[in-house]
Amino acid sequence: MTRNMNRETLEQKIAKTEKAISRNREQYDRLTAELEDLHKKKKAILNEEILKAIAGSSKSYEEILDFIQGKRERIGMDEYSRIIIEEYCMNHPKTKKADFLWKLVHMSYDVACEPASWQLMHLSQLISRERNPELREALEDLDESMNGY
Q1: In 3-state terms, the chain is what percent helix, strand and coil (to 5)?
Q2: pLDDT tens, position by position, 1-29
Q3: Cα(135)–Cα(130) distance, rounded to whole angstroms?
Q4: Distance CA 94, CA 136 (A)
Q5: Residue 89: its pLDDT value, please?
Q6: Nearest Cα to Cα of residue 140 among 97, 126, 44, 59
Q7: DSSP letter at 148?
Q8: Largest separation between any pair of C-alpha atoms in the chain
Q9: Has residue 149 got a pLDDT over 70?
């Protein structure tokens, strides 16, 4: 008789555990479906934000597509170029050239910032007169960054 009670008790426990697993599986399936739905809603919101940003952008369709597809290697200037120019400015702190370049380099950190046309012309003149090839290359990079190339 004891053996029968143990078997009955075990079968009851097995049935109870299977029922709990079934409830948990149903809950898991329900939560998984809910999570998937939330991800879809989030993606829809993000897509809407992207479309609004594109509509409000001054960039052309081709520029935006090139950026999204990764055809444009980088935005802004190379960090090494900034370092070269900043090093020049620190080594020549009292010159007009260093003061001008320092302002342009710090302006280049802000992608939305656009320099005045006189600043771009002055930078072009500095590039044409620069004898140091490393600094000249850094200035060319700064010029490309400022002109949005």
Answers
A1: 80, 0, 20
A2: 456 678 888 999 999 999 999 999 999 99
A3: 7
A4: 20
A5: 94
A6: 126
A7: T
A8: 106
A9: no
Torsion sign across C-alpha atoms 16, 21, 24, 29: negative
Q: What is the DSSP letter of 68?
A: H
Tokens of 137: 């290359």
**Domain map (residue ranges) of the chain:** 2-68, 79-147
Q: Are 123 and 146 in contact (CB under 8 A)?
A: yes
Please tell me the distance from the alpha carbon of residue 54 to that of residue 48, in angstroms, as a whole number: 10
Higher pLDDT: 33 or 5? It is 33
The whole-number pLDDT of residue 57 equals 82
User: What average pLDDT does range 63-90 have in this prediction?
Assistant: 78
Residues 101-130 have pLDDT tens digits of: 999 988 887 766 788 889 999 999 999 999
At residue 94, φ and ψ (nearest 5 deg) are -105, 15
Question: Token pair of 53, please?
Answer: 């940003």
Q: What is the number of other CB atoms lying within 10 angstroms of the CB of residue 138?
A: 26
